[in-house]
Amino acid sequence: VYEMIYFLIEQHLILSMTAQRRNIYDKDTLDQFLKYIPSQEHLDLLYLLTYADMSAVTFGFLNSWKLNLLNELYKIASEALQQPHRPSEAEDYHRALEELQMKVFVFIDEENIDFLSKDYVTRFLYGMPLSYLKYATCQKVINDTQLLMDLSDKAVTVSVLNEEDKPYSEITICSRNIRGLFSMLTSVFIANGININGASIVSSSKDWVIDTLHVDTIKKGAQLSTKLKNKIIEDVTGIIEGKITRFELFKNRRKYIKIKNFENVKSPTKIDIDNITSDKFTIVEIIIEDRPGVLFVLTNVLYEMGLDINSCYLALEANRAIDTFYITRDGQKVEESDFESKLRSKLASLKDEDFK
Fold it and tell me: How far apart are the C-alpha atoms of 76 and 28, rounded to whole Å?
């Protein structure tokens, strides 16, 4: 009993922090998390404590988005704990590929989907990462494949999924692989009164990229309408074709927020550079004062430093924004010894006008 109490006190934040700030579908993240979880019983009680703790903060703090992340991490960790001999990453990849491929083929037959060949689906899936293969639904595979098919003569294709029991929308954007695309998207979303709750960026080649984001509107809990979807397509296309810049769009957000006078942005509360957890990515966690447009400003700083954002995880804690980025430079982890000092200097030099 005392051992369990000590465990719960010592690790009471690890479930919520991992779920909100890390890629929970990444094998390295899961391995790191499981180092702290001795058994299924420990995981069960930790989940209950985390649920109670987050529910008690304030009304609405534990929203459906955060709860979904907690549930997903709990499910994935439970499955891993029940496997006495976990397969290698290569074995896991091929098994996940075969299982998802068969499920999608059955789905195509049952739904009489005739616009999509199974050969095209197979080629699409062969380029996707393990996290996608293990957790994408059949409907998402169909939607994403169709987005890629429709991209041939367009700058961008977009799909929006609204579910009745969820106050947020899942928006998927497919485009040519352009450096700084995520920074462009943040400017488009804030210009149209859209909050980004989380983002996953998937690319199977140097030619195209699929970004899946969970969003809601400034009107709390409101899902995206067809009109708003079309405006997103118009704005993203405009940036890609050079008709408008992301900075011009960023300024358009003023109609959705009240601009206040802030003191100059000082160094962030914390910058954490993690080059251990992931074999493929450098994980950058930035905790900074929350203010309108902070995500756009941060993504633009990373872009100007020549960094590519592979995924992004967002959390709010009181008046602080906690933004975690999985980044690379030229496809490799960032291992320069002065990287953190350069990033800290960039963020410390931000002025109030950068947010206006």
Answer: 13
